[in-house]
Amino acid sequence: MTDDAGAFEGREVGKISGSFFVPRYQRGYRWTGLEVARLLQDINDSGTVTYYLQPIVVKAMVDGRWELIDGQQRLTTLALIVRYFKKYVPMADVKYTIEYETRPQSEKFLLEPDEATANENIDFFHMYEAWKAIGEWLDGQEDPSTSAFEIYSALSRRVKVIWYEAPAETEAVKLFTDLNTGRIPLTDAELVKALLLSRSREMDGTDRALSVAAEWDAIERDLRDPELWAFLTARSDEEATHISLLLDTIADQISDRIRASDGLKPLRGRDRPSFHTFETLRRAVVEAGELKGVLCDHEVKDGEGAAHLWDHVVDLHSLVAGWFEERETFHKIGYLTACRLPFEIVLGLAESATRSQFIDRLDTMIAAGSGVGLRMTAQDLRSLAYGEDDARIKRALLLMNVEAVRKITGSTERFSFHTYAARTWSLEHIHAQNSDGLNTAEQWTTWLRQHRDALSGMPDLTPGEVDDLTNRIDEALQGITLEKFQVLETELRAIYAPPETAGVPEEHALSNLALLERNDNSVLNNAVFEVKRQRVLELDRAGSYIPVCTRNVFLKYYTDRHVQQLHFWSLQDRLAYVEAVERELAPYLLPSTQTELAS
Asked: Are residues 468 and 570 in the same domain?
């Protein structure tokens, strides 16, 4: 269903008429009672909105009948439902007949399902099981008569099928095979494509239709770039069509404007009915006036709707491709979508904005956007604690990594939003609150010296206490043993632990947390810094994706070279790391006067 596009429309079930012929290449009727009951319940629960069933694909026969290529199960079930409802709704009537090439008797049985002959063949059996399921569903309703009337009314007015009439030259068997093996997925996007091609052929001839088909395929290929797709959607998974992102967005723009004029809320998520995109865009193409105010500022003449719609798809693709190619917009938008900001919101930020205005809006969203922005001051950042603020810490560390890559000048390197979307990330403690990994005299010596040198900066120690502890450390270093180290280590850990009033244990502070893939994190467990450093380097050499700032932490990138050491995560390391986080995030941190907003 690409270049050979036939006629498409949304057709109410009550308006389906004529004689349908089911050829022998199709299997017989196979719906179960569960599927029948689910269909009835779905229609019952759909409220007052248009409810779409899967497409009905037909081809005109020379004798005036329809060859039913796809949709036999649905049309058969609908015929059974309406005929059963006639018991409660005398006006109920089926305006079509179905003839089955392999079992001619099925047409008669479908008119009057009969238990006595239900076991004569497999088709009769399944049809009668569906017939019983309809009765059982009605019996389970509070008022079967009212339920039957409401369902019948819905079938007549708001339950529709996507009606596709294949061109006369279509090879029916091949089309049936392609549909049922998934080579032609009847999604919103494929239906819109067929609509655009058929309209283009009608208005401008075959050349225009071929041009649209070629452009469609090029856009679809472009959007299948894993990095581009993740940048726009924060998803790494494949979908039947990726151009559907653009089509859904345009359909929502049109639908939102129409619903707003009627005082109704936008349709999103589960409220969005099946084939909402196709029906909205079909109406916009057929009733070209719907396009004014969304795709253009002027009235669109009849017959020009398809061209205006396609031009808008092409323009939207060009816009997002430009964002992707430009490193600054790529990283800022990618961060926001990774934090689950919907694509339509990003698009709204760009509306009527110059590039600099758009960047400013993105920066504002990163700083203070609800649900996606940092929304914190520098003090808030330093007070984050593992177990209490995990989501906020992840956002902060993600942004730090994104910004670190973005600000590399003269480089084509980019943060991989595809890798980020494809994996599960967790917070890794840079150093566990124990020293099980320090096993050598060299490590004990380095650890004690580093903590000794920092004593003078501890505000709660008197000069005399500093001198006393310094002397005892120097004495121990003359002949260090495990027993001496453990005594001093316990005392020093108590000194360097944050005051109780701070409410943030040293182990769980931002200064001791980094972003790492969960699988890699499970390998590291609660090892001390030295063990983690070695393992992170091993993972990096083995090809694991280590975020740049996490790698920097274990390479001591942020620590001044005069106080660098390799074996543990010292106070100087922690202070330098927090300063680096704050430095990277500074453009997006709120002034202290906006603390209330940040909360």
From this structure: yes
Who contacts 304 (Cβ-Cβ below 8 Å, separation ≥6)?
203, 288
The whole-number pLDDT of residue 7 equals 62
Question: What's the whole-number mean pLDDT along residues 96-107?
Answer: 86
The string of pLDDT tens digits covering residues 499-514 is 443 444 577 889 999 9
Read off the pLDDT of each residue in 85-99 and give the average, rounded to a whole number.
93
Find the helix or strand (DSSP H, E) in which 164 lies. Answer: strand 159-165
Q: State whether 454 and 555 are in the same domain.
A: yes
In a domain, 384, yes or no: no
**What's this model's pTM, rounded to 2 decimal places?**
0.71
Q: What is residue 423's three-state secondary structure?
A: coil
Indicate whether 291 pLDDT > 80: no
Burial zone of 490 (CB within 10 Å; 0-12 exposed, 13-18 middle, 19+ buried): exposed
Residue 200 lies in a domain: no
Structure tokens given for 474? 């120097």
Q: Span 369-397, mean pLDDT?
A: 93
DSSP assignments along 463-523, one per residue: HHHHHHHHHHHHHHHTT--HHHHHHHHHHHHHHHSPPGGG---GGGBGGGEEEEEHHHHHH
Which of 310, 324, 242 shows the shortest CA–CA distance to 281? 310
Q: What is the pLDDT of residues 412-425, one digit of tens each?
A: 899 999 999 999 99
In the block, tokens 């997006």 appear at 588
Domain of 568 in residue numbering reads as: 441-585
Same domain, 96 and 147: yes
Residue 328's SS3 state is: helix
With 0-12 / 13-18 / 19 or more C-beta atoms within 10 angstroms meaning exposed / middle / buried, residue 96 is middle
> Is the same domain home to 52 and 108?
yes
Question: For every residue of 201-233, which 3-state class applies, written as one string?
Answer: HHHHCHHHHHHHHHHHHHHHHHHCCHHHHHHHH
